[in-house]
Design brief:
The complex is a heterodimer of chains A (303) and B (269).
Chain A (H helix, E strand, L loop, with lengths): L2 H11 L2 H22 L20 H10 L3 H8 L1 H34 L5 H13 L2 H12 L4 H8 L13 H26 L2 H9 L4 H12 L1 H16 L3 H6 L7 H11 L3 H31 L2
Chain B lengths: L7 H25 L15 H8 L1 H34 L6 H13 L2 H15 L5 H26 L3 H8 L4 H30 L2 H6 L7 H10 L4 H35 L3
Helix pairs in contact in B: 1-11, 2-11, 3-6, 3-8, 3-10, 4-6, 6-8, 7-8, 8-11
The chains are: A mainly alpha (303), B mainly alpha (269).
Amino acid sequence: MSARSIFARPARFAAIAPYVWMVLFFLVPFAFVLKISLSETAIAQPPYTPVFDFTAGGAAIKQAFAALSPDNFRLLISDNLYIFSYLRSLVVAMTSTAVLILIGYPIAYGMARLPKRWQPVAMMLVIVPFWTSFLIRIYAWINILQHDGLLNRVLLKLHVVSQPVVWLSTDSAMYLGIVYSYLPFMILPLYATLAKMEPSLEEAAADLGASPKHVFWLVTFPLSLPGVGAGVLLCFIPIVGEFVIPDLLAGSNSLMIGQTLWLEFFMNKDWPVASATAVVLLVLLIAPLLLYERLQRRQLEAR
Amino acid sequence: MASSRISRFNIASLTLGLAFLYLPIVILVIYSFNASRLVTVWGGWSLRWYQEFFNDKAMIDAAWMSLRVAVASATIATVLGTLAAVALSRGENFRGRTLFSGMLYAPLVMPEVITGLSLLLLFVALNAERGFWTVTAAHTTLTMCFVTVVVQSRLGSLDRSLEEAAMDLGCDPFRAFIAVTLPLIAPAIAAGWMLAFTLSLDDLVIASFTTGPGAATLPIRIYSEVRLGVKPEINAICTLVIALIAVVIVVASLASKLTSTEAKRAAPM
């Protein structure tokens, strides 16, 4: 038996505690979401009729299964509010991911072209804002974008505008907030692939007569596609369910699905509908989530 | 010729990008020292908003709650996340491995409203009293996944012949792990703890779902104030949080530098 496989046996036992934890706190809760999404709303605390009561025995469980109702899901389909907020979430996530690639790529490219000893510094500088609070970064933008905020005052001073512009509670403010918050998540995977790229490939293309533009589109960009894919997944999935940024920066006339779920839960106290919303959101995200999980595992286990 | 490869376009996009990332935070910090009540008018330097914060008992309570949750959840998450990373990178193939890694990677990108809602429903079903421990458990679940990724990537880049040599020299696997592996991954474990700590300190959505009455965390308090409009006191609180996180980052990078030079001396790679 090799030392490696002797080491592997106890290493496997290390999985027990985190395994139990994740099953209890990550997997099992989804069963509850599913269960409550199928139960009826009630004015009570907690605000739903309990569907399963395991202490009541088999017959009661059978009865409970019969009582499960897809009413909440019917509501989601019949009410435009929900369909619109799902669609809006998808559109917002796609648009902001596209903008993130456009802005993030040149920055990541610039980082990868820095002299080797400067690259860790640049990477640190990109990571640090990710460590500072999400909420604080959005709040910082509210400071700048508000009616008599810095941006309007600068624009007025420069005579770009004659009247203060309304920035807050608009879609542009929301997109700005999303792009600002998720930029590090786009830059880092892009940088990781670009930095690993063999410079001789680009040099060879240039030696064979390709113009810099051709070198980029025929060599650099195709080779960086895995990084683009990772960045897209890392940004797209959480943006679809984003709550804080649209809530604080966008107007309240059209909601993203995360906001709708939040409202159903905290304002209307309608837990079953909130759960049904979560189930549908999860189903929409299953494919990108599975892709992400495969990518992440391949990346970490290939080493 | 690495240095000649950088073009003016590269430098411009880097500078603009970094300015974009840092400018809002810098402005926020500067305005926290503004003497004027109007957030946008500069009235000279002052510490009055910091004073206001330290006299605001509800805010202080929330900050204290957040700190306790962050320390507790980061510590549990670091233990569990490190164990998970060891199992994933050294355990070869075991039954249920795919599910295990799936459960560990999915929360990294899972929308927080889903995680928060599902955990709340669990706590209600368990009849758990909502407050410090439910928020701590919720944050542990999220942050241990980040710890796992950080520690796992360090374990993946380690030379495994070091552990094997220790075992050839008569260590059992457990001692080999304690004596060889653990010191080498210590910087990653420390970084994982810091990351978990800041993520917990930062979280609004999951905490809102899983906390109970009278147990608001700092982000929950800040959020309810921000909804009412910009207040200079919030600028001061945000600056304090940024300062705390900056200290954490500096300590983390110093610690990792120290341990990695020590590790290099002990095991030249």
